[in-house]
Amino acid sequence: MFDFFGSMPTEDRLIFELSKLYEQYGYRKFCMAKFEEYSFYSDNRDFLSGEGVIAFNNSDGRLMALKPDITLSIVKNARIDKNTCTKTYYNENVYRISQETNDYKEIKQSGVELMGNIDSYSIGEIVTLALKSLQKIDSDCVLCLSHMAFISAVLDEMKLPATAKEQIIFCQRNKNAHDLKAVCDEYSIEEKYVEYFTALTSLNGKFDEVLQGLRYISMNEATDKACDELEEVYNTLCSVSLGNKVQLDLSVVNPSSYYNGIIFSGYVKASPTPVLAGGRYDNLASKIRKGIGAVGFAVYLDNLNLHYPVESETDCDILILNKSEHSDITLMKAVEDFISQGYSVRVEKEIPENFKAGKTMAFDGKEVK
Amino acid sequence: MLNIALPKGRLGDKVYERLASIGYDCSEIYADNRKLVFESEENNVRYLLVKPSDVAIYVARGAADIGIVGKDILDEGDFDLYELLDLRLGVCHMCVAAKNDYVEDHNRPIRVATKFPNIAKRYYSSFNREIDIIKLNGSIEIAPLLGLSDVIVDIVETGTTLKENNLRVYEKFLPISARLIANKSSYRFKGDVINDITQKLREQLIKEGKI
């Protein structure tokens, strides 16, 4: 019997399943134009973390760009109400330079953005949706939670030059305690901060245990508050039986200054790279629209067909070899009959190369045998 | 099963000895053959012997969970990996070297011959010096001797090759050594065993007074 969803390539199936998931939580689809004015991206270059933008001249001479990012466009174009929330999701392609090939690549993305008046429920809902999105890809998944305050609130207090901050963030992202020490020596960083950042590189694992460690090394009011926020999110996930899929990992850091709260990245077992990333980005949202908050995530769908191939025993349930030059109506009726019984049918003159049919039949001009 | 990418050669041998001594041995590796994959079901590890410059790619793409690679390869590429430990093996420096009588001409870009164009570009751009990169794949020392370049940017361990070719080090700028790296996704799903290896190797280094 023909199983349409079961035989669908993983990426296509996920677009349907993720859309359904987001619609179930009241999110509405956001369709956008393929291009934006180039100046929009150059004004928000920090958010794009150095990824190249493909630019071209429009028919009226304006410099346009193929979208390297969806979030920016949604924040700019959505009708946002300061007092309530705008909940949107998307299935779009973005165009960026691939880290692996150093060439432009089309990347298929789905994601959700929640903008407006953000409260703790909103954050809990987004993180829950992120984990449920991962589960749609593979039940063997992990969501790594972190909070930007552990890095940014402490770096701000230290008043370091921008290059030192960049190097410290780079070491955090790579769990690189040895080079972190060298950076701290170079900038004569106070011992209490060296110990703090070194501890951060190794703090990861089960949420409860790591949170305890985090509270112990917490440096200021902002990091205390970040611990409380993380705990609140974790409790939300536990309340929907998703707590066992969460790890707390302080190496999840976004170098963009636009992120300001909870951040996270998601992994599934068969993919060597994260398939989901997101977090709270009030700093970006309020830059484009004053006073609003925002939180969201993107699911990277490209390469999932490679890591999760759909293996089907047959290309089609029934292959009918049409040996006749006439009686198209009889053949068409037979095809319709098989389809109405739930089979997939392909009509050919000869058996196509490398084609696997569940059953091969022939039409002699009178009947299908 | 944990997949470990080891660099073929002396460094790989040294690292294997260390891994074997902390309980991740695979006796099959001593067999005199041309196999490149060795497996120990008992210790739940599989060793992959690969070209040193390819270790990071194997790990980044998930073909190996962890690996041992020189800092020069990591800095030359752009890999999104965890760098868990400096193993203090194969210690050397990335250096700028030139002929013994070299004097820099500030009126023109410096011609730099190197196997590491990204590292060289980053180094010179840090003080805004314009350069002309000449990418070579080996025998870099010959470039300034033949007038192909003004300087070379290369790894220097003892300096003997430089000396024998009438070259000397002008600037040491990047310490290099072997690093233990891990794939970020593997770390999520095999974190316990990866942390066990990292911790035991760190304890060895502490015992030897290296860290």
Q: Class by helix and strand content of chain B?
A: alpha/beta
Secondary-structure element order of chain B, as H and E? EHEEHEHEEEHEHEHEEHH
- C-alpha-based Rg of chain B, rounded: 19 Å
Going by CATH, the homologous superfamily of the largest domain in chain A would be Bira Bifunctional Protein, Domain 2
Q: Largest beta sheet of chain A: what is the strand line-up?
A: 1-5-6-12-11-10-7-9-8
Order of helices and strands of chain A: HEEHEEHEEHEHHHHEHHEEEHEHEHEE
Largest interface: A-B, 22 and 20 residues
Please state how the strands of the largest beta sheet of chain B are arranged side by side.
Answer: 2-3-1-4-11-5
Total separate domains of chain A: 3
User: So what's the CATH class of the largest domain in chain A?
Assistant: Alpha Beta
Helix segment tally of chain B: 8
Write the layout of secondary structure elements.
The complex is a heterodimer of chains A (369) and B (211).
Chain A: H1 10-24, E1 28-29, E2 35-37, H2 38-43, E3 55-57, E4 63-66, H3 71-77, E5 85-97, E6 104-116, H4 120-137, E7 141-147, H5 149-158, H6 162-173, H7 177-186, H8 191-202, E8 204-206, H9 207-217, H10 221-239, E9 246-249, E10 262-268, E11 276-280, H11 282-288, E12 293-300, H12 304-307, E13 316-322, H13 328-340, E14 345-348, E15 357-363
Helix pairs in contact in A: 1-4, 4-10, 6-7, 6-8, 7-8, 9-10
Chain B: E1 2-7, H1 10-21, E2 37-40, E3 45-50, H2 55-60, E4 66-70, H3 71-76, E5 82-86, E6 92-99, E7 110-114, H4 117-125, E8 131-135, H5 142-145, E9 151-156, H6 160-164, E10 167-176, E11 178-182, H7 184-189, H8 191-207
Parallel strand pairs in B: 1-3, 1-4, 7-8, 7-9
Antiparallel strand pairs in B: 2-3, 4-11, 5-11, 6-9, 6-10
